[in-house]
Specification:
This protein is an alpha+beta fold. It is built from 19 helices and 88 strands. Strand 85 and strand 86 form a beta hairpin. Helix 9 packs antiparallel against helix 14.
Length: 1827
């Protein structure tokens, strides 16, 4: 029994000895395995034994207790043996629990399933087989990570506090060292407190630790000593003081002046030397260098990279030797152990009893140990919390100290006041300490903290599983995307193959039909041959007629020559008439002067009358002023037309003579062409037997028709030449005199129009003077209107200044610009009138036609209007007929409108969308119960849904009653289609004769109305087109008895982007001092806008909002130019529709500080200079200031602020902006509607998302507007599990995809740049898609689907989605979106409230109208349009190419920019003008030359240049025997061409390289050449030649020629490219705009420029010459200033598939390389944007398989596989782009670079792009636009 009971203890021992002896015997001579990655040493056989033992016993087998479990198993509570679950990392586990003991290979956890902190496993998911130290940056030897993990195939490190970088390879800010150096660590920067206190960390070199910017007159490695010329204690006392030694040096500690160096005795030959301050500075520098060398020496001595590895190998060898010795000893002792086993069996009974006792004691000790461990953990956590609290207290103390100092400086407190405030604070602190501690609250907090920790642990566990799963998602998505690309390619190939099959079938059918027809014709030909022969005889007779015509034409030509001579003879008479016309022009100008004087006199009278009356008349002043401005603009425009007619009369007479000559030449050419065709027709019957009789008869009849047409044309030409007598010029002169008389009559009309206005103003003034009212609110409102209308009179002097220019004899274009400026002033007047916040009284017969400035397209899908209303209930007319009309906005035909009326004692909102009326009566608040003061009404329409709000205030309190009523259209309509030319907006009534719809055909309103907003715009009744029966005698404006609606107006101002505030002489409220401060609060949803602007000559100060962040730029006359201070770290976003307090502090006239919401954003130092300003513009500025050359180049944009402002202060002194005399176009209040973001712009990589309580697969309706030029893109995305609902654009069509059910719109033209409206409806029965009221639907196949829970919050996306879908993200605008939701009513979505916004702009829509399709031939080296390689473009052979979307598109999106880019994608350029030069062969090539080019070639072109030589146009035949050219030589224009062997050369006398635009016409006729410059210089030369022999071939060269061309005919210095701009190229009256190939041609940019190479958005690249190439070892350095965040920078490609590519993608720079083995890459992402408008330096170094990338000193590198067979290829290098054929599928960025590149160097050798092998596309060499 004793032996049986002891057996469970003996059995494991015997088993262990047996296994140990067998393993020992088998392991002799085996090699022990070492894990070089740092894992523990475990042999391969041992691991096999562990796994084998776990498999030796069946799982769950029951073993008697006496036998025990084998190793690798543990006994469960039921007595069974189960295998240890240790993941192969341990062979022991505890009985009962199965917890693993002695985990190997650096693993931990209850089942050896985890890696400890600082280690990482060898698998992405699941338990690791071994763990190795984190490579952060080096495993084991230099591991500075707390932990690490894998993501996207690479290791990510969580660095310790002092380290930073993806692999902890560099020190964190404020620390220095080199973590990549073994033995080195990161230490904290120590500058002895002498660095900039505004920085969060001390600034020192991140490697050496040397302090960068020592302040307080200190210097040294750690700012530990005083600077030269100063003395004192720099470390502790910090009292470095300037030496007082008259310029000599002093002792750095005591300040004693040091003696000058002794002079050399005069009895030697050495010269006398006197040491100055430079010697002592040099001495200090040498001493500093010695210290630096010592530190570098110690650093170098610490480097021992190989020693550590050698030491480790020695340790491993020793370990191996010791283990072998130990194994041999164990083998010898095995026999002895076998003998001792018998003795052990005898003692086993005693051990069994002791084991049971120990087992019980062990369990008790284990439980106590766990308790102790738990308490220890809690104590440790509490200690950590205490340390953290102490650190927080310390930080708070430091922050309080710094704030107290800042507060003292800001408030200018004395030391006594500071001490007093400090004592008060100490008393408060003592009082806090006396309070009782929050013990109970602390206990509750601890309990909550414990619960939170448990929850956090669960979340962390879930997060780990989530990370593991997400890491797999990336791989799956990449594989899916690759498959998607392959499927797309396959689909395109199949489509193309299908097209070919269809074309082949069509051709086969046509051939079959053609064969049948030919067989029939062949049969009939034999029968008709005789008849054909007879007809041919008659045709020969008929052809004698054209020969006679030819002889007649010769006589006509003689007569034409005679007429031409007569015209030349009449030249003197025409010149006299021209002189008479000039005199006539003078008379016209004198009359215009008299006209302008009368206008000015009338305006002065009106101005005096406006200022002479009281404030009650100011309402009518807006009426009169608006009408006066309209009339003045109309009359001046008529006078302008008369003047233009008179000035152009001479040109018309000249055109008549030129036209006669042109027609004679043209008809002669036509006759010759007809003769040639007749001769060909004569030969045709003899050569062809395939014509049928009908064909021959048709040709003969055509000959007769053309002959008769020719005869009639000749007769008309002769009649026209005979009628071109002097009487025509005389008649035109008489007509011009009649126009002058009309101008005089117009002046009289102005006088008659303004006289009654003046009388009405006086009359209404007297009437309003008698009107008395006691309401202060009314006085305030009318005074506000007076201020607004008074601004109209301030515009008047500017109008008069423009009119005075008419008094001078100026060119017509100057008059036109003046008229345009007058229109701009009238528009400003309208803007001011829109902000007059005063009501109008309506008496039942009066009406106002309002002039809203909103576009009717914006009202289609969404309409919102608000207004104030007050009824006159005591009016007897209202009692007799209470139903009244209020307003109507709609078409004149009463179709498509919205209206408001009072019917049956209810306020009724009525709208019609084309079918039937929808009436929404507000029956909850009858009109009879309304109060006798103002209430507010708001009406809305979203698609077919309508809504009306009524807000009734209370006189006694701030309480308000609110009522709401809804309705919707039951029919199919959902859009309000207003016609711009027929839309009207009537308020209060309608004019006589206008027919209202039956539902609104009611009497006019009786009471007061005031308009507030229409959609996002502020509107007013005083911005009207017409008023009817408005009489202030009987209908004065209503008083505001309650200011409930105007409380917000008293504290804030609304800017609509067109107005501004001007505070003059701001020092009247405060003085510029040591601390100068500006404060203002802003609220806006827009991206850009001007906030503050001060100007004084060339000095300026501007605060702008750029892409939602602040942008401050100023120049007070600094020697280094303007200073920029911007929120580059994106700390404070301003455009979130919330108020933000902005403070600008200028400290000590040398430091500018930017503060937002009382948080420091950024500061910058400048030269000590005071602010030189007196006036400040707020929210905008006049256009002439914003566009002036001195300020426009320094502004990020010239856009006025749109939003709300309040609290403007200078030196803490408030300003009332509306009371400032210079304020224009702003108003009180802050309308909420104008601050909503109802639209969003997406750039193809952006999207917005929101989480809502929606279920789109049960009952759903939604809609939105969109605009785009792109044919494809994802508009909307929503998913519930595997069900997806998406709306997208596919090839121009709109597609709804609901869980696999697709509905596609029949039209495919929705990418036309116009606004379209989509409505989507989902019901259990059907899916519906409506686009612009065109409905498509399908049955819902899942109508039996189980309903989803509607309470779950789900996410929906607009513009795209973060997940990879089949569609690309949308490019364009989405606006006025709505959908049915469970948590609120139907309303337009405010995108500003969306939680996730990625690269989307929530204001503005830069989508333009689409350009004409590009007709583009893809030449070998031409710039190719990306994405169009599969499209076929046709070309009409007989037509000149039409305007294309090539470079022309740059002007249509000229100022478009990416949201994250500072500069616009395309600089400002002259429209339709192109810049040539930079390379010797910069040019455009045109492949189409008209058939009649040899007979008639008339070119016209505009040019400007500073160059003295260069080719402008050249065309020739293949051998260049026949040619024509226009070029510049010595600044003069030369037109040259050949006539046989004769060379005709026409040369201008004047030089035209003055940098101004000149118009040039050059003509090669049949026997004459002409050169006409600016319409004044006409040069011509005649020649004799046969045009039939003069033929040229394509291409036509513009701006330059191909290499080797034109040398035969043109002097060598003019063969090279023209350097300048060309525009408006025309050939024979048709524009040439679509070049087949382009080489180094860009738009003609305006504004400043600088050195560099510009790559346009149209694409292009530079190919370097053969002297530069990239091999296995090189260094490339260059600078870039991009205008787009993505694009190819550099590309090299070899024939065997190896390549090197450098590109940007979303601001990240990547170098990708393939060396024949595999692809590998490295990237750098800067903290600031690469697209910030600055230059950035990029360097790439390659050495075989190692590539290093350096971007602005941010460095990263990659080590790829080594290719032993690598060959140093010398292949071409592409810069800025690359042909599509050379790009591999693995490259993610395929777009060309957009922006500037300069200082390009390869292996330290400068690269000149002007000497490149090829410059293809829109690339400008040596000139880069700076703005």
């Amino acid at each position: 029994m004793a032996l049986i009971s002891a057996w469970p203890l003996i059995s494991p021992v015997l088993f262990f000895l047996r296994c140990f002896s067998s393993s020992t015997a088998s392991s002799e001579g085996s090699v022990f395995q070492f894990d070089i990655e740092g894992s523990s040493a475990v042999s391969t056989q041992e691991a096999t034994v562990i796994r084998g033992q776990q498999q030796a016993v069946a799982t769950g087998s029951w073993v008697p207790f006496a036998e025990g479990c084998q190793e690798g198993f543990y006994r469960t509570s039921s007595g069974k043996c189960s295998p240890c679950n240790c993941n192969g990392n341990a062979n022991r586990c505890l009985d009962g629990s199965g917890i693993c003991v002695d985990c190997q290979r650096n693993t931990t956890g209850q089942h050896c399933e985890q890696c400890p902190d600082g280690f990482i496993g060898d698998t992405v998911s699941g338990a690791p087989t071994f763990c190795q130290p984190c490579p952060c940056p080096l495993p084991a030897l230099a591991n500075f990570a707390v932990s690490c993990y894998r993501k996207s195939g690479s290791v990510r490190c969580v660095c310790k506090e002092n380290y930073a970088g993806p692999n902890c390879e560099r020190c964190a800010p404020g620390y220095y060292g080199n973590p990549l150096l073994i033995g080195s660590t990161c230490k904290k920067c120590d500058c002895n407190g002498n660095s900039d206190p505004n920085l969060i960390f001390e600034d020192c070199d991140e490697v050496t630790g040397q302090c960068r910017n020592c302040l307080h007159h200190t210097s040294g490695f750690k700012c530990e000593r005083c600077a030269p010329g100063y003395y004192g204690d720099a470390r502790f006392a910090k009292n470095c003081t300037a030496c007082n030694c008259g310029g000599r040096m002093c002792d750095s500690q005591t300040g004693e002046c040091l003696a000058d160096s002794p002079e050399v005795s005069t009895d030697t030959d050495c010269p006398t030397i006197s040491c100055d301050k430079c010697i002592w500075d040099l001495t200090d520098d040498i001493r500093l260098s010695v210290l630096t060398i010592d530190e570098s020496k110690s650093t170098l001595l610490s480097i021992s990279t190989g020693v550590a590895a050698q030491r480790r190998l020695n340790d491993l060898n020793l370990t191996t030797t010791h283990l072998q010795e130990a194994m041999s000893k164990k083998k010898n002792h095995a026999v002895l152990w076998t003998i001792q086993v018998d003795d052990v069996a005898d003692e086993m009974n005693d051990l069994l009893r002791e084991a049971e006792t120990l087992d019980e004691q062990g369990n008790e000790a284990s439980s106590k140990g766990r308790l102790v461990q738990k308490e220890t953990t809690e104590i440790n956590s509490r200690a950590s919390q205490l340390v953290q609290q102490l650190n927080n207290i310390r930080d708070n103390i430091e922050e309080i100290s710094s704030k107290s100092k800042y507060y003292a400086i800001q408030q200018e407190l004395s030391p006594e006041e500071i001490a007093q405030k400090r004592s008060v604070a100490e008393e408060m602190l003592k009082e806090i300490k006396r309070r009782k501690p929050f013990t109970k609250q602390r206990q509750l907090a601890d309990e909550e903290e414990n619960a939170a920790e448990e929850l956090l642990q669960q979340i962390e566990a879930f997060h780990e599983k989530y990370n593991d799963t997400r890491s797999l998602v990336t791989d799956v998505l990449e594989q899916l995307s690759e498959q998607d690309v392959k499927l797309s390619d396959l689909e395109e190939a199949l489509d193309e193959a299908l097209d070919y099959v269809i074309q082949t079938e069509d051709i086969n059918r046509e051939n079959t039909a053609r064969l049948q027809r030919q067989e029939k014709q062949h049969e009939s030909i034999k029968e008709q041959m005789d008849e054909v022969n007879s007809i041919l005889l008659s045709a020969t007779t008929i052809l004698d007629g054209p020969q006679k015509v030819n002889s007649e034409l010769s006589e006509v030509l003689k007569n034409a020559s005679g007429f031409y001579a007569e015209i030349d003879g009449a030249k003197k008479e025409l010149q006299e008439k021209t002189a008479n016309l000039s005199l006539f022009d003078d008379d016209l100008v004198e009359k215009a002067m008299h006209h302008a004087h009368n206008l000015r006199r009338l305006a002065d009278e009106l101005d005096g009358n406006l200022y002479g009356i009281d404030s009650n008349g100011l309402v009518q002043r807006a009426i009169n002023a608006s009408n006066v401005y309209e009339n003045i603009a109309g009359y001046i425009e008529e006078a302008n037309k008369v003047a233009l007619l008179a000035l152009n009369t001479t040109n018309r007479v000249k055109d008549a003579s030129v036209g006669i000559d042109t027609q004679v030449t043209y008809h002669k050419g036509k006759s010759e062409e007809l003769l040639i065709r007749a001769m060909q027709l004569q030969r045709t019957p003899h050569d062809s037997s395939g014509y049928t009789m009908a064909d021959t008869r048709w040709q003969v009849n055509g000959t007769f028709a053309r002959m008769s047409a020719l005869r009639s044309q000749l007769m008309r030409a002769i009649a026209k030449m005979q009628s071109a007598e002097t009487e025509e010029a005389r008649e035109r002169l008489e007509q011009a005199q009649l126009k002058t008389a009309e101008a005089v009559s117009a002046t009289t009309t102005v006088t008659q129009a303004t006289t009654p206005m003046d009388e009405n103003v006086r009359l209404w003034s007297q009437n309003l003077q008698d009107f008395q009212h006691n309401s202060e609110a009314y006085d305030s409102a009318v005074h506000s209107a007076g201020d607004a209308v008074k601004k109209l009179t301030e515009v008047f002097p500017q109008l008069l200044d423009k009119l005075r220019r008419v008094e001078q004899k100026a060119p017509a274009n100057n008059i036109s610009s003046s008229i345009q400026r007058i229109r701009e002033l009238i528009a400003q007047t309208r803007s001011v009138a829109s902000k007059v916040q005063v009501s109008m009284m309506f008496e039942g017969q009066s009406a106002v036609e309002v002039n809203p400035k909103i576009n009717v397209e914006e009202l289609k899908s969404f309409t919102s209007m608000s207004l104030y209303i007050k009824l006159h209930k005591d009016n007897p007319q209202l009692a007799a007929s209470p139903d009244r009309f209020i307003l109507y906005l709609g078409n004149k035909n009463a179709k498509h409108y919205i209206g408001l009326a009072i019917k049956n004692d209810n306020l009724v909102y009525i709208y019609n969308l084309g079918s039937q009326d929808v009436e929404i009566p507000l029956d909850a608040k009858p009109v009879s119960t309304w109060p006798s003061y103002f209430s507010i009404i708001k009406i809305e329409r979203i698609g077919r849904h309508g809504k009306m709000f009524l807000t009734v205030p209370s006189l006694g309190s701030t309480a308000e009653e609110k009522f709401i009523k809804k309705g919707e259209v039951l029919g199919p309509g959902s859009l309000l289609n207003l016609e711009p030319e027929n839309a009207v907006f009537y308020v209060g009534g309608v004019p006589p004769g206008f027919k209202l719809p039956p539902s609104l055909n009611l009497p006019g309103f009786i009471g007061c109305l005031e308009l507030a907003t229409l959609n996002d715009d502020v509107i007013s009744l005083y911005n009207f087109k017409h008023v009817y029966n408005i009489d202030t005698t009987t209908s004065p404006p209503c008083a505001r008895d309650k200011l409930a609606f105007t409380q917000s107006r008293a504290v804030s101002y609304f800017f609509d982007g067109s107005g501004y505030a001007l505070a003059r002489n701001i020092e009247r409220r405060g003085k510029f001092s040591q601390v100068t401060r500006f404060d203002i609060e802003v609220r806006t949803p827009t991206d850009n806008g001007l906030i503050l602007l001060m100007i004084n000559g060339s000095m300026f100060f501007s605060l702008e909002m750029h892409n939602g962040f602040l942008y401050l730029r100023y120049d007070f006359g600094f020697s280094n130019g303007p200073v920029l201070l911007e929120d580059s770290m994106k700390k404070a976003r301003i455009n979130d529709a919330k108020f933000h307090e902005i403070s600008i502090i200028y400290h000590n006239s040398k430091k500018m500080i930017l503060v937002v919401d009382r948080r420091h954003i950024k500061s910058v130092d400048n030269e000590r200079t005071a602010m030189p300003f007196t006036d400040i513009y707020i929210g905008g500025a006049p256009a002439e200031i914003l566009h002036s050359s001195s300020i426009s180049s320094h502004l990020a944009g010239s856009i006025g602020f749109k939003g709300c402002m309040k609290g403007f202060q200078f030196q803490k002194k408030d300003f009332n902006l509306l009371e400032e005399p210079g304020t224009l176009g702003i108003s009180y209040g802050c309308p909420e509607d104008s601050l909503m973001s109802r639209n969003a712009y997406f750039n193809g990589e952006s999207f917005i998302a929101s989480s809502q309580k929606v279920s789109l697969f049960t009952e759903f309706e939604g809609g939105f507007n969109f605009r785009t030029l792109q044919p494809s893109g994802l508009l909307f995305y929503y998913s519930e599990g595997s069900d997806v609902l998406s709306i997208s654009m596919e090839r121009g069509a709109v597609v709804l995809n609901a869980s696999g059910t697709k509905i596609q719109s029949p039209d495919r033209n929705y990418n036309d740049g116009k606004t379209h409206f989509i409505i989507t409806s989902v019901t259990p029965e059907r899916y519906e898609l409506t686009v612009d009221d065109k409905k498509q639907s399908k049955k819902n196949p899942a109508k039996d689907r189980a309903e989803k829970s509607p309470d779950i919050i789900k996410k929906l996306y607009f513009g795209g989605a973060p997940l990879r879908t089949q569609q690309a993200n949308f490019t364009g605008c989405i606006s006025n979106a709505y959908f049915t939701r469970l948590d609120q009513e139907v309303e337009v979505e405010d995108f500003q409230k969306y939680s996730e916004k990625v690269q989307a702009s929530l204001y503005g829509c830069p989508v333009e109208s689409p350009p004409v399709a590009l007709l583009h031939k893809k030449g070998k080296n031409s710039s190719k349009a990306k994405g169009n390689r599969n499209k076929k473009v046709g070309r009409d052979k007989d037509k000149i190419s039409q305007p294309s979307s090539g470079l022309k598109k740059l002007y249509q999106v000229n100022l478009q920019r990416e949201p994250e880019c500072h500069l616009p994608m395309n600089p400002k350029a002259t429209e339709h003008a192109y810049q040539f030069g930079g390379t010797a062969n910069s040019r455009q090539e045109f492949d189409h030359i008209p058939k009649d080019f040899s007979q008639r070639a008339q070119f016209s072109i505009s040019l400007k240049t500073h160059s003295s030589h260069g080719m402008i146009l050249y065309v020739s035949d293949q051998k260049e025997n026949n040619f024509m050219a226009l070029f510049v030589a010595h600044g003069r224009l030369i037109f040259v061409f050949n006539a046989g062997h004769q060379k005709i050369r026409i040369k201008s006398q004047e030089k035209y390289n003055d940098g101004l635009w000149h118009n040039v016409i050059f003509i090669r006729g049949r026997n004459i050449g002409r050169l006409i410059i600016d319409g004044l210089r006409v040069l011509e030369e005649s020649f004799d030649g046969n045009t039939n022999t003069w033929q040229v071939t394509k291409p036509l060269y513009i701006g330059g020629v191909a290499p080797g061309k034109a040398v035969k005919n043109i002097q060598i210095n003019s063969v090279y490219s023209f350097s300048g701009c060309l525009s408006n190229l025309q050939l024979n009256g048709r524009s040439l705009t679509s070049a087949s190939q382009t080489f180094s041609v860009t738009p003609c940019f305006e504004g400043p420029s600088e050195a560099g190479t510009y790559f346009s958005s149209e694409g292009g690249y530079v190919v370097l010459d053969e002297s530069f190439s990239l091999g296995l070892k090189f260094e490339v350095v260059f600078e870039i200033r991009p205008r787009s965040s993505s694009g190819i920078l550099l590309h090299g490609h070899s024939v065997n598939g190896e390549y090197l590519n450098m590109h940007m993608r979303n601001g990240q720079v990547t170098v990708k390389l393939n060396n024949g083995i595999k692809d590998f890459s490295t990237s750098v992402t800067l903290k600031q944007s690469l697209c910030d408008g600055r230059w950035h330096r990029i360097a790439v170094i390659r050495d075989a398989n190692v590539v290093q990338l350096d971007v602005d000193s941010e460095v990263n590198h990659v080590v790829g596989p080594l290719n032993p067979k690598a060959i140093d290829h010398r292949e071409p290098v592409f810069i800025g782009g690359v042909p599509e054929s050379l790009l591999t599928s693995s490259l993610t960025t395929r777009n060309s670079f957009i922006g500037c590149i300069r200082n390009f160097m390869i292996d330290e050798k400068p690269v000149s792009f002007s000497k490149a092998a090829l410059v293809s596309g829109a690339v400008s060499i040596n000139t880069c636009p700076a703005a």
